[in-house]
Request: fold
Amino acid sequence: AYEISACLVGSEMCIRDSSSEDPQISLGQIIARRVYTGWSTIGHTAVDVNLYAYGRPSSLNKLSGNQENSDIGRIISEIFELDLGYVTEQLKNFDPHPPSNPLK
Reply:
């Protein structure tokens, strides 16, 4: 299996090749650790997925029919009038590991 470990330089991650495991799986594990996420599968299917929504018909019409999965987020952000640029900047400055409370 590929070994995932911290490199000696900073906090960068690296892959050490120790067998024939798929490097994409190891890369997915590195990404998951870095962005604090999890994957439900290592595979992908092209099956259509139903999306159900409730709200104003004028908004919901934007979601009707077949949509590209990459368009769903954009459509929802338009419906809710979200400023994704602002949210992205806020997330860039977010520290998921704040310093521990010195009063505890």
Summary: The mean pLDDT is 76. Helices lie at 23-35, 57-60, 69-79, 84-92.
